[in-house]
Amino acid sequence: MNYRWHFVDALEALLAETWPGRVLPVLLEVNVGAEASKSGVSPEEAPRLLDAALACPHLEVRGLMTVPPFDDDPEKSRPHFRRLAALRERLAVQAGRPLPELSMGMSHDFAVAAEEGSTEVRIGTALFGPREAA
């Protein structure tokens, strides 16, 4: 079994035990670039992960997120953002409910992400500068 399904089960169990009345909004991470160094399920695995998360009463699936392969040219991210947006539309139909959030885009490619439908961008480097190497 894919370890990501274990995370869904573990999170559901923790919420049920610790905060039984709480419903946690979540985004499902999809590795659209198929990078071994990145987390998330493949686009092909996303329907199964969505089904698993939707079966959890303490999780509210709000949408999808991705971090595409880095390239100095932000336009290289566009096909990955388009792929995630199209996947979200297909999954919303499968689920029979909207998945309103699409989190994609970081400091160097957020403008392209916004053009492709992102509802959330992560722009920490633009706000706070580069991180120090650990």
Produce a short descriptive summary.
With 134 residues, the protein is an alpha/beta fold.
Question: How would you describe the overall organization of this protein?
Answer:
The chain has 134 residues and is α/β, with parallel strands linked by helices. The chain has one domain (3-125): TIM Barrel, CATH 3.20.20.10. It has five helices and four strands. Strands 1-2-3-4 form a four-stranded parallel β-sheet. α2 links the parallel β1 and β2 (59-65). The mean pLDDT is 90.
User: In what range is the share of β-strand residues?
Assistant: 15-25%
**CATH H-tier superfamily:** Alanine racemase
Structural class by secondary-structure content = alpha/beta
What's the β-strand tally?
4
* Average of per-residue pLDDT values: 90
Largest sheet: 4 strands, parallel
How many helical stretches?
Answer: 5
- Terminus-to-terminus distance: 33 Å
Q: Which properties best describe this structure?
A:
5 helices; TIM Barrel; globular; four-stranded parallel beta sheet; alpha/beta; 134 residues
Write the topology of this structure.
Blueprint: H1 3-18, E1 24-29, H2 46-54, E2 59-65, H3 78-95, E3 101-106, H4 110-115, E4 120-122, H5 124-128
Parallel strand pairs: 1-2, 2-3, 3-4
